[in-house]
Amino acid sequence: MSPTQLHPMLNIAVKAARAAGAIINRASLDLDLLQVTVKNPNDFVTEVDQAAEHAIIDILLQAYPGHGILAEESGRTFGARDSEFTWIIDPLDGTTNFIHGFPVYAVSIALAHRGVVQQAVVYDPARNDLFMASKGRGAYLNDRRLRVSKRTRLADSLVGTGFPFRKGDNFKRYVKMFEDVMQQCAGLRRPGAAALDLCYVAAGYYDGFFETGLNPWDIAAGSLMITEAGGLIGNFTGEADFMYQREVVAGNPKVYGQLVQILSPYTRVLKDVEAPQGDDGAARDDAGGDATSAFVAAVQGEDGQAAAADPAATPEAPRERKPIRITRAAKAAEDAAQRDGGAPARPPRREGPGGPRHDAPAGPHGRKPGGPRR
Q: Are 14 and 130 in contact (CB under 8 A)?
């Protein structure tokens, strides 16, 4: 796709991604000078993450000052909060890889309009690979159109994944999930950058992908790559509600369905989205609750955020209506009353072995309708 064919908003996203990539590449030349901060156990942020994020936000807001921002490091600090457009940014997906000089990391930028991703860029600065997609116009790697793989059997498929790394993650649950998938596919891979993993599904390198604990900025751009390349993406039950559910499965249509069958017992889909609470009652940043709730608010408006934070404000679900059984006797009584020109009278109740019952009135010959003849 040539620059003249790009959607204007996608063109700005490409410019921002390349600017962030230049910052990352310069820093990769001397990793010993990096200032690394531990956000949470095994969750790092560097000055490079912050510099790249600021560069991206500056370029985006210079072009579209009325748009909203949801970024990994700064959340919703910048941009308009009431905009229908929200840029979802991960300035350096794969920070741990970057710190160790392992060249699998990327810049991820997506633009959502009313909660639907419309433009997406994932830039791999180590390989100068630019993945980009516009809704309805296909996905591309540099100038090459992307299509998902054509494999139909999970047993022949290469599947990408990610390992839980945060304190408090359910490792036993993941090991069981890992075992179930690994025994039914050709191989599993875990490079450590979910944005790139999703692009690799779109490119056909992987046939499928699954992971838990991901945030919107990890998957927003990659999700559009997959759908524009002919693939499917959803939560573990196969539904499209995956962006803020912290679980995702993707693949070509055939492999996707087989992965959903394996992973559906492990779903943790949140019915009422709210920020996870710590022991002190405060929202826990390590679980991504604040940023996820912010994303929900950006999509659904401030009313949605209030409903998520206050379960009492959520309207009560409608009660299930159970079918009412009308007996032949009761129907006959109602018909008789209508023939007499009066309102239908309720037959007297009497107790029986099976609980309260209605007696039908006797017919004109002294017998009940449906009863035996004398």
A: yes
Give Cβ neighbours of residue 300 (< 8 Å, ≥ 6 apart).
115
CB 10 within 8 A of CB 17: no
Give the predicted TM-score (pTM) of the model. Answer: 0.72
Whether 76 is in a domain gets the answer yes
Q: Answer with the one of 229, 247, 269 that is the final residue of a domain.
A: 269
Task: Give the span between the Cα atoms of 309 and 29, in whole angstroms.
Answer: 45
In a domain, 349, yes or no: yes
- Classified as helix, coil or strand, 343 is coil
**Parallel, antiparallel, or unpaired: how do β-strands 68-71 and 85-93 relate?**
parallel
Cβ-contact 80, 168 below 8 angstroms: no
Q: Answer whether residue 164 is part of any domain.
A: yes
Taking 90 as the threshold, does the pLDDT of residue 272 lie above it? no
For 38, other C-beta atoms within 10 Å of its C-beta total 9
Please enumerate in sequence order all residues whose Cβ is within 8 A of that of 165, keeping only pairs 6 or more positions apart, or say none.
Answer: 42, 43, 96
Residues spanned by the domain of 35: 1-269
- Beta-bridge mates of residue 269: none
**How much of the chain exceeds pLDDT 70, in percent?**
68
CA distances, 17 to each of 14, 125, 162, 323 (Å): 5, 9, 24, 58
The answer as to whether 212 is a domain residue is yes
Pure H helices in 310-358: 328-339
Q: Which two tokens stand for residue 205?
A: 């390198």
Q: Find the Cα–Cα–Cα–Cα dihedral 280, 302, 69, 213, rounded to 10°.
A: 50
Count: domains in the chain: 2
Out of 39-48, 324-333, 353-362, the most confident range is: 39-48
The two three-digit tokens of residue 20, written as one number: 């962030």
Q: How far apart are CA 53 and CA 215, in angstroms?
A: 16
